[in-house]
Amino acid sequence: MIRVAIIEDQPDIRDGLASLIESTPGHSMSGSFASMEEALAVLTPTSADVALVDLGLPGMSGTEGIRRLNETCPDLLLVVLTVYNDDERIFEALCAGASGYLLKKTAPDRLLESIREVVNDGSPMSPEVARRVVSLFRKVRPPDRAEHRLTPHEIRLLKLLVDGHSYRSAAAKLGVTQHTVSFHLRQVYAKLQVHSKLEAVARVMRAGVIR
């Protein structure tokens, strides 16, 4: 029996997903939540196997919630289910700890297949999302000797972003302001010859600076 939790703020979508799960043999509902705060207050390390997580939630974002759930429920498999398919959100969610990334237009049978896939050590993604991930890592190439051009502080900042931190939470971890984080990232962009946080993180990961 695969136990599934749903974190989705729209009642009609939440109820439809719950009905689909409950009516499918071998699957059961272990919780339905309208916000990440509700889910964090209830979910325990043993209460569910898979959680379907929306990103555009009221209050705490789905991405930040994924990072926190990874800390409190490390065995819970987190699959994004969202309308967003832009590079930044995809990469941030995967770095935060999502095991899969699906769009809400995913057909019910494919959604159920994805739940089973992630339980069996897969990483289900909608075709559009998979193409964007592959395209990103094909086009971003590490500059020569990238590790010698970044300071330890800059590498630590990038590591926090890889771990799913936002500018705000990274600033809190480092004991600096968000303005300082933005300043250091501009320096990193110049050194790595990139134009966004997404490209910077991909580049240092491919260069082996961050593992």
Describe this structure in words.
The chain is an alpha/beta fold and 211 residues long. The protein folds into 2 domains: 2-137, Response regulator (Rossmann fold); 146-207, Winged helix-like DNA-binding domain superfamily/Winged helix DNA-binding domain (Arc Repressor Mutant, subunit A, Orthogonal Bundle), CATH 1.10.10. Helix content is 52%, strand content 13%. It has helices at 11-22, 36-42, 62-72, 87-96, 108-119, 127-139, 152-162, 167-174, 178-192, 197-207, and strands spanning 2-7, 27-33, 50-53, 77-82, 100-103. A 5-stranded parallel beta sheet has the order 2-1-3-4-5, sandwiched between helices. Helix 7 crosses helix 10, helix 8 packs across helix 9 and helix 9 (178-192) crosses helix 10 (197-207). The radius of gyration is 18 Å and the shape is globular. The mean pLDDT is 87.
